[in-house]
Amino acid sequence: MSSIYLIDDFANREGDFQKMSVYSKLAFFFFLLASIVVSRNLSILALIPISVYSLAFIGSLPISKIFKWALYPTFFALIFAISQGDVYFGSVILLRAFSAASLALFFSFCTPYHKTFGVFSKLSPFLASMLFLTYRYFFIFVSGVERKVKMVEIRGGKNKKFQSVGRIVGFFIISFLNKSEEMYKILKVRGFRGKIGAVPDFKFNLGDFLLLFVAVLIFIITLNYV
Fold first, then answer.
1. Residue 220: enclosing H or E segment and its boundaries?
2. Gyration radius from the chain CA atoms
3. Secondary structure (3-state) at 221
4. 59 — phi, psi (to 5°)?
5. Which of 88, 131, 168, 214 could covalently link to 148 via disulfide, CB atoms 3.0 to 4.6 Å apart?
6. Are residues 147 and 15 in contact, defined by beta-carbon separation less than 8 angstroms?
7. Is there a domain that residue 86 lies in?
């Protein structure tokens, strides 16, 4: 099963997190994202992915997949971190990238994408369209990189895997705009008109309030250590 369909499969299951309101999960996402942006404390930044992976374990989400895919944006952050010449600040950058990626993947695995983008489309159809296309292309990007890496290994490039991955990632970055434009045209042909509709779900249960409590608690702790 490809990456995008695996996420859709988990997001549409009948688990505890999947049953929660999209609004409580969005609040959880933005509170933790704000904590990531504000904090420069390594302990706080480490607390966020620990919390996310603990919740993923409780919700029976694929932790190994989330961890593996979160390493992709962390790889790009590593390049920037090395260029700073400061070990502590570089560590902050890496933890921020890894925490944000893990958080976004956790949210995607327990929230059907049409509900998320349906909420954003009520605020701005254009913003919802851009986020939707970015979301879809990210996993096409990941699948493409995985296929290319396997091809390199089959052809005997295993000992130079790191260099090969760098070249492959560079190739996909160059092709990003072209692929995005092609995808948008395909969606247009299939009836996409720049707006994603979804029925709002305002029903909160105990799980929603517990999730909000965790998010607010981490945010408060973050503010105390700024």
1. helix 206-224
2. 19
3. helix
4. -85, 10
5. 168
6. no
7. yes
Nearest partner of 221 among 54, 96, 34, judged by Cα: 34
> In total, how many domains does the chain have?
1
Report if residue 6 sits inside a domain.
no
Type of residue at 166: G
What tens-digit pLDDT sequence spans the chain (226 residues)? 456 667 778 888 888 888 888 888 999 999 999 999 998 889 989 999 999 999 999 988 989 989 988 988 888 888 888 877 788 888 889 999 999 999 999 998 988 877 777 676 666 666 666 666 666 666 666 666 667 667 766 766 555 444 555 565 566 566 665 666 676 677 778 776 666 555 556 678 888 899 999 999 999 999 988 6
Contacts of 89 (CB under 8 A, 6+ apart): 81
Any domain includes 15:
no
In a domain, 12, yes or no: no
Name the strand (E) or helix (H) holding 161. helix 161-174
Name the pTM for this structure: 0.69
Cα gap 68→48, rounded to integer Å: 17
Structure tokens at 81: 């971190």
Domain membership of residue 119 as a residue range: 20-198+205-224
User: With 0-12 CB in 10 A as exposed, 13-18 as middle and 19+ as buried, what is 130?
Assistant: middle
Token pair of 153, please? 């290994």
Gap between the Cα atoms of 20 and 59, Å rounded: 12
